[in-house]
Amino acid sequence: MASTGNSKRLLLAFDVGTTFSGVSYRFPGQGHVGGDSKIPSIIYYDQEGLPRAFGAEAENIVEDEEWLRAEWFKLHFRPASTAIPPDALLSIPTLPPNKTVIGVFADYLQYLFTCARTYIEQTHANGAQLWTSFGDCIEFVITHPNGWEGAQQAQLRQAAIIAGLVPDTPAGRSRVHFVTEGEASLHFCIRSGLASDPLKNGEGVTIVDAGGGTIDVSSYGQDDSTDKLSLHEIAAPQYLLRDSSFASDVDHISRCFDRTTKLRFRDISEPQFIKFGSARDKDLALGIRAGQLKIRGVDVAAFFEPSITCILKSILDQRMKSTKPINTVFLVGGFAASDWLFRQLQDSLEPLGISLSRPDSHVNKAVADGGVSFYIDHYVSSRIAKYSYGISTGITYDADDHEHIKRSSTRYISPSGVTKIPSRFDVILPANTQVLETSTFQRGYDWAYETTLEIPIERSVPIYCYRDASKAPSWLDNDTAFVQ
Fold first, then answer.
1. Are 43 and 56 in contact (CB under 8 A)?
2. How confident is the model at residue 37 (pLDDT cuts 50, 70, 90)?
3. 167-191 burial string, b = 16+ CB within 10 Å, else e?
4. Torsion angle, CA of 357/244/94/278, rounded to 10 degrees?
5. What letter does residue 58 receive in the DSSP assignment?
6. Of 80, 216, 347, 357, which sits most exposed with the smallest number of CB within 10 A?
7. What is residue 337's three-state secondary structure?
8. pLDDT at 290
9. Cβ distance 14 to 21 under 8 Å?
10. CA distances from 163 to 110, 176, 235 (A)
11. Which residues fall within 8 angstroms of residue 48, CB to CB, at 6 or more apart?
């Protein structure tokens, strides 16, 4: 990244995860990507709605009657169309009273920004002077799940403005960039040297980013029209909320399980012990002794089963829909550190000829580091349209067409004297279409209207999204739940 005038440019990438977050950064002359990971995504607010504790400090507060805990707040951004398992929906904590998800996210972004500044000032020579040299020349990359869209990006940008990261001006808003967690993880794998061989051999790779609350599954392949590394999506990416029957149990014990047992568990025949209290805590009937809860290995394995099944189904679905053969899968994210998860996936995929790998370190910082690489390297040049987009049009009435007969009560005479029916969905961008970053999709339409004016009339129409890629849409009044 080049210097601008007397100022250097700093790139900050924020990965705000459901349970843990990460920050990575890069500036000219820096030999490697720096940053921090495993920052708990937790805030404590006082009764006035002011943030009082963040991250590790907030995590260590077990209970406080005066302060209100905000966690898993990222999931409140989810699109309305997201399919959520009932148990997962019930386990999403509510926000503190009078707090919006944008406000909470803004508070947390401001905290991460302060952490980044402190880290740079304390770990680099003349750190305070270095930070001052950046001035307003700071670019921000915010990662988000595969299923988030323009509406969520607009909210994230607003949160960045409220946090004071950028001013609310065109120039300020242009310094906030977005990348999906799946694509960021791909960049991390390429930078780590993991994805080179299968891509060079003309195959595709699938990236599974298994986080604390969400799972992103994406597949990519090399663009065969160029010798340089230029990738495109070869199947529509998927976004899943991780389902676990353990999530509905006692909050504190559940958090202890997430931090320790979930990652250490390896053998179904060995019981697991979750330390959550003091030596005085004892209830032998419930398996609690000296502040530790004993859980049978088979029960711990059952906690994993929904997530394992979900990930396997998604990987095989990506492989089936891909435009290139996929025999390599990379597992990243905080949940990827679980040996049990890795072994269960490996045992299921290897008989199918699919190789499963994971980075040997920093799996929980893959997205933040990948966010930096996305901005600098920009390996992905085209993506798959997940849904169909089009407009509502009128179509000439056909008395022999069953679909037209069903809608005969909506017939009307157009100004040109033709009998028509409305609500025909005319597709401009079909689902599963390869879309280059420079692509433009357009169609021409004729409107007939009566007017005494001699100047043309401008007309704007809404673009509709049809959220069912399994079939071609025909009418807007069919499957209205899929139309937005």
1. no
2. low
3. eeeeeeeebbbbbbbbbbbbbbbbb
4. -100
5. H
6. 80
7. helix
8. 40
9. yes
10. 5, 12, 36
11. none
Would you state the pLDDT for residue 481?
A: 64
Concatenated DSSP letters for 237-299?
A: EEEEE---GGGGS-HHHHHHIIIIIHHH---TTS-EEEE-S-TT--BGGGTEETTEEEE-HHH
- Please tell me the distance from the alpha carbon of residue 238 to that of residue 138, in angstroms, as a whole number: 31
Kindly report the average pLDDT of the chain as a whole number.
82
Burial class (CB in 10 A: 0-12, 13-18, 19+), 311: buried
Average the pLDDT over 275-284 and give the result: 45
Q: What is the tens place of the pLDDT at every residue in 452-461?
A: 777 667 778 8
pLDDT at residue 277, as a whole number:
45
Q: What are phi and psi of 163, to 5 degrees?
A: -70, -10
CA 21 to CA 282: how far, in whole Å?
34
3-state DSSP percent of the chain in helix, strand and coil, to 5? 35, 25, 40
Higher-confidence residue of 142 and 34: namely 142
CA angle 145, 149, 150 (to 5 degrees): 135
Q: In terms of pLDDT, which residue wins out, 265 or 42?
A: 42
pLDDT at 470: 72
Residue with tokens 């780590």: 192
Residue type, 347: D
171-180, 288-297, 436-445: least confidently modelled range? 288-297
Torsion of CA 89, 469, 148, 17, to 10 degrees: 60
Q: Output DSSP code: residue 8.
A: -
Give the residues across from 283 on adjacent strands: 288
Between CA 300 and CA 307 the distance in angstroms is 13
Rounded to 5 degrees, φ, ψ at 142 are -115, 120
Report the 10 Å Cβ neighbour count for 136: 10
Q: Are strands 326-332 and 380-384 parallel, antiparallel or unpaired?
A: unpaired
293 forms bridges with which residues in the sheet?
274, 288
pTM equals: 0.82
In this prediction, residue 355 carries a pLDDT of 95
Which of 370, 367, 14, 311 is closest to 157 using CA atoms? Answer: 14
